[in-house]
């Protein structure tokens, strides 16, 4: 049984590889420049799930990549998305941010595109944890009554410490937890990675704690 769980065609080995890689990055993060550290994290977030999908160890359906119920996604999913973004916009309206000179349009577009990819990679990593745990729980000898419910919240508990370690301020940590909880709820009801990516990126673009912090420091 244990050997089968650690097979390349089972999600257990990919979860273990992801956790070990994340711990290694956190241990060695002070010895590398920020550019290489962030680049390696993005490659890990995308590479481990991709290899798992390529070798048949992960289910694209449970990761929210295929067999998506667009009726639920465009109904309940968009409704949840709208409510969450509305709440974030209300939070953003209460923030007092000083103005500063705008950077060149090309640099601004590059920054936004990079952040979009970064948030997509992080959300892909979170969906990988949800889907892998979902499949792992389903294949247990005595699975619980609601394997999806337990899987998404166990994935949130697994992703939270790592996500908080990469946040550089209290505002970023708070928003990270809000986004993690929001996308967890959205994924549980829709099992749609693309909607979760949309919520994840939109939340950061609306509140944008990076610019808030930099502007305040300036």
Account of the 3D structure:
With 218 residues, the protein is mostly helical. It has helices at 2-5, 11-28, 34-54, 70-93, 105-138, 147-166, 170-190, 193-207, 209-217. The chain has one domain. α2 (11-28) crosses α5, α5 packs across α8 and α7 runs antiparallel to α8 (193-207). Mean pLDDT is 82; it is low at 211-218.
List the main descriptive attributes of the protein structure presented here.
mainly alpha; 9 helices; globular; 76% helix; 218 residues
Layout: helices, strands, pairs:
Blueprint: H1 2-5, H2 11-28, H3 34-54, H4 70-93, H5 105-138, H6 147-166, H7 170-190, H8 193-207, H9 209-217
Helix pairs in contact: 2-3, 2-5, 3-5, 4-7, 4-8, 5-6, 5-8, 6-7, 7-8
Shape: globular
Query: How many strands, what sense, and barrel or not for the largest sheet?
Result: none
The proportion of residues forming helix, as a percent range, comes to over 70%
What is the CA-based Rg, rounded? 18 Å
Mean pLDDT: 82
Strand content: under 5%
Number of domains: 1
Oligomer: single chain
Please give the count of helices. 9
| Element-by-element helix/strand order | HHHHHHHHH
The end-to-end distance, rounded to whole angstroms, is 57 Å
Residue ranges: pLDDT <50 for 5 or more in a row? 211-218
Number of strands: 0
* SSE class: mainly alpha
